[in-house]
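Notes on consecutive records. When two proteins share a document, each keeps its own sequence and its own token line. Never mix them. Below: protein one.
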Amino acid sequence: MSLLGSDTTRGGFVPPVYPFDKLGELAELAAAHDGGAVDLSVGTPCDPPPPQVVRALGHSGRERGYPTSIGSVELREAAAAWMERRFGVSVSPSAIAACVGTKELVAGVPHWLRLRRPSQDTVLCPALAYPTYEMGALLAGCRAVPVPAGSDGSMQLSAVDEQDAERALCLWVNSPANPSGQLDDLGAAARWGRERGIPVFSDECYVEFTWSSAGRTILEHGDSGVVAVHSLSKRSNLAGLRVGLFAGDPELVEYLAALRRHAGFMVPGPVQHAGAVALGDDLHVLRQREIYLERLQRFAASLGGLGIPAEVPAGTFYLWVAVPDRFAGGGGDQSPAFAFGRHLARAGGILSSPGDAYGPSGRGHVRLAMVQPVDRLDLGLERLGRFAD
């Protein structure tokens, strides 16, 4: 994963450029269109959150006191009830904890696990993946070792070198996967980790938007040695509240929760109350599923009509679109993904996310997030069509 290397010329760690900050040129091209850019680069929800959740934020009465770091009993019981309804798994509220959005948990896990096992220095993660898995390893002074994907897109755990496995602090899996929407075999991942004593962390933040089958959690295969990570950002359009959850192996959850308590990680009290309200309601999620699926189908079909093949993914609200042959050579020092993204921005005012932001194997794709209303999506498609004509 080449994009996250650090610059050590000044004698210490220098954070790399944030992947989305590299889109400046594309953003300018897209914004130059009449009507502005159709921003499909970031998975930021644009649809409104449930009104009852917004009301709960303003009427929780929990503004004055310090919130509990592990999460209120109300929040953890709501999460346990949701998992029972959604997946048919029974998880004790004591084996569930809150986090300040799941991104900070993903970034922090390698550091915290290394405090417990200093001799381990490796994080295993998908080769095509959300960049924070790798960045968490780098911030902890660890090695990030990508696990390659097979022809079906699933992780090939058999390809992991046993020496890397012996040094592993954890294995990250992500299903449905960002950016490709691929579903992975969570049962196989759980077994592989248990056989080697490697904790498996399953990022399931897109599980409510699984299209090709029922949504799955790794906890269906037992909780020993595994932790499921969930978020309300996508499920309930609450990315601005920063509330997530992790659940599973009681010993792992207790360890992480205790460490985080000492470090002062706390989801604000009103947000915890609002999160419990959101988890208690499934109807708004069903409506949001319909919205995203309609956008995915509509945009994929329209791209196909323009000679750009695209398919609805197995999960997530992203289209993972292969770069057409005419852009396969890239341009100058630009990757094929960036060259195609430049075309989308120049011709359609569509801002995409180049696939190589998710690892070298993504350089032949772009990711399009179906987070804009249909009228904005249609505007971008209309511009593309005019350009093609």
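Protein two starts on the next line and is unrelated to protein one.
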Amino acid sequence: MTGTGVTGGPFRLPPYPYDRLNGLRALADSLPGGVVDCSVGTPCDAPPPASVRALAVSGTERGYPTSAGSPAFRRSAADWIRRRFEVTVDAGAIAACVGTKELVASSAQYLHRRSPDRDTVLYPAVSYPTYAMSAQLAGCRAVAVPPAWSDGRGMDLAAIEPADAARALVLWANSPGNPTGGLCDLDELARWGRQHGVPVFSDECYTEFTWDGYPRSIIQSGIDGVVAVHSLSKRSNLAGVRAGFYVGDPDVVEYLRGVRQHAGLMVPGPVQAAAAVALSDDAHVEAQRQRYLERLGFLASQFEAAGCPVELPQGGFYLWMAVPATWPDGWALAEDLARVAGLLVSPGELYGEAGRGHVRIATVQPMVRLRLAVERLAAAGWT
């Protein structure tokens, strides 16, 4: 297990991970037709039109929105949970957040205020960088849990040191996982958290794009000691409006709701109206699933033909591609792809040292742009 300790000195803000790609972006954008940006999971497809209309006609822009979320937003979230996971929760056990990244980044500092004797954030060793950053922003220890599989998927809970478990504020999980696309055993995670008295926060923003079986949530194992975190950004292509919610253990949810109310964290009223409409509609999600499946299959087959085999993910819309021996690491492969194909991808090292031997490819560009990148690879003799 690896971790960073609290030094007590001044906080030194590290570089923002994706700013490190600026040089590669310029290199890719220098090609005729410009960069094909598959580095960040920013949706390019349209959100549901009814949600866009709701932004303009809700009539909620004049007054302050409720921090916990409007009754309509929370009812819509509860109905979606029942449809998707066959779990019934009271709308009062759900609270809104200003996009889930904000919740991920801020929760450790709020939990630490309530439990100052606990100062450790446990998170997957290969993961979205904000889990570790949440610990740093709270002045806490960030302790990475080793992966269960050699490609970085999952977490080996048996590797968590008892001393770290005793100091843990929270264990973060992400399923389907970013960047690996792997699925976690959410029942096992919930059991571990309850046995050790550690809240388990499950980031489930990619759950609608589960390819191996059905979408899953940690609250299917019961809500005691767990919190599920959900977003409209990926599901409904609404990343620009910043809308999400969390649901689970009543004590934890209510505590965070109260703190966030004091902090003035509120999803704007028109955004809540749009989110309620989006959550009530599943048809646009199915259409988006088909788009991502097409893109994932297309790119995987093209890289396979180019001598860079990659497995399709269990969930999510990323390809987690091992770096062939031709290149020393993910940065070298990413630079080659930028130079030759104008394809911007993320070196796996951005997601933890254990990801250094991979690159992450976000299939968020339309097929016409992905074909352009593949045509450039073919012209350079890659296929």
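For the record: The mean pLDDT is 95.
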